[in-house]
Amino acid sequence: MLKLKYLEKSVNCDALVVGLAKGPKGLEIISTLKLDEKEILQSLTDLGATGKADEVIKLPGTATKVILFTGLGKASKEYSSETIRRAAGIAAQNLHGHKSAIFAIENDAKAMAEGAALGSYSFTDFRGHSKKDQKAPLSEIYIDADGDAKLLKEVEIEVKWTFFVRDLVNMPPSFLNPKKFAELVSAKAKKVSGVKIKVWDEKQLKSQGFGGIIGVGQGSANPPRLVHLSYKPAKAKRTIAYVGKGITFDTGGLALKPALNMDEMKGDMAGAASVVGALLAIAELKLPIAIDAWAPLAENMVSDTATRPSDVITIYGGKTVEVLNPDAEGRLVLADAIVKAQENKNLDAIVDVATLTGAKVVALGTRYSAIMTNNDELCAEFLDVTDVTGEQFWQLPLPEELRASLDTPIADIANIGERMGGALVAGLFLKEFIANELPWLHLDIAGVELNTGKAHGHTPVGATGVSVRSLIEMAK
Ligand code: BES
Ligand code: ZN
Ligand code: ZN
Q1: Nearest ligand 1 atom, CA 250
Q2: Which pTM was predicted?
Q3: Cβ of 327 below 6 Å from ligand 1
Q4: Which own/partner contact pairs does 156-159 have at CB distance under 8 Å and 24+ positions apart?
């Protein structure tokens, strides 16, 4: 377990982390601790240091074995929290193999602690012979800044559950099928006080009319599940439902995806992982907000029992859907869960989180997630929340003009429509299942859930854990 502490007196640590910025007259060391700058700056210049973001340079230290200089970019009077968070994160990612480090970049305790902790992640559960060669991340992080003890405890909780989300997303689909997802979440939920859990198996889903989850899951030997977590503190000020897409693997079904990059579809349950992770964190933080988290889980496979293009299914509550493309499956499982979630008549808002469309990745790439809404005020509030967490979201519209493309002569609605603007069409499909007056946010995190490039900032290779910290902050 990762320990976060404030630096009180001098402790023996493996590493010291300070910032390095590119000033108008050359490199600037940004540090809360005094260093012998002259000599160091010469060495850094000789080594070709530039101070740009994600640049990490290590020099031998005196009080610590190494001093790590982490890039902050252009020198400025004040650095944003995300700049500090990322600089601390990439430093921590480059200190795997060391046990302890002092972070002394700036007096922004929270950002430094978050970055350092988020960068101290590794996932080795499925390594065999090579497991012993893996360098363990930092286990003791000392923050040289002012702040109260409560703050670091909160960061520890938030990071612990972000790691749980990353673990779930990193797990291979041969291991993490819907049943296993439900079991792993149940085991965690039982250890957090105030959290209740209910799991529907395939028989219950079928008899109770969850046609979306059943339709998507029926082609797989691994049957679907629906998980509901609830946290209802006595003095709850608001009630929010979080609903996450939980496709443990998306082959595309009979609209089979090409082999290239199909492996990335193990991350198609990232939305479900985020909503359960956020609820467990919120409960452990004892925030005065009631949360329902819903995770509709299925494996979208190809077989003689898989849903055929043109099949009609009935979503929970009775709306019928013509499944013209079984690869547009996320919206089907979400529709069931969104309708079910609204049986709670106390809801003040509903938020769904999903790796929903390739069109979103085309539009915004892999560093920005999309947000769509029926309530611009709530959306603006959420975007304020992401300013605090540093997670990047961009609002996309839900143009009424595209809605008619989902019409079909056969059923109430089709599961695909106009191809152009596919992320918006998917949003419009979900909107059909939301009560008019209920404020709703739709987060399409496709492409951001897995980092298939190099490690950067506090983001490792593989699962990123995107959205979970913003869902927690939203409750705050
Ligand atoms: N899981 C995919 C979306 C996705 C793409 C997630 C890339 C992460 C990275 C989703 O189920 C899907 O296949 N959507 C289709 C919808 C289409 C058939 C309307 C898509 O985007 O191509
Ligand atoms: Zn799909
Ligand atoms: Zn999918």
Answers
A1: 1
A2: 0.98
A3: yes
A4: 156/2, 156/4, 156/117, 157/281, 157/284, 157/285, 158/114, 158/281, 158/285, 158/469, 158/472, 159/2, 159/114, 159/117, 159/118
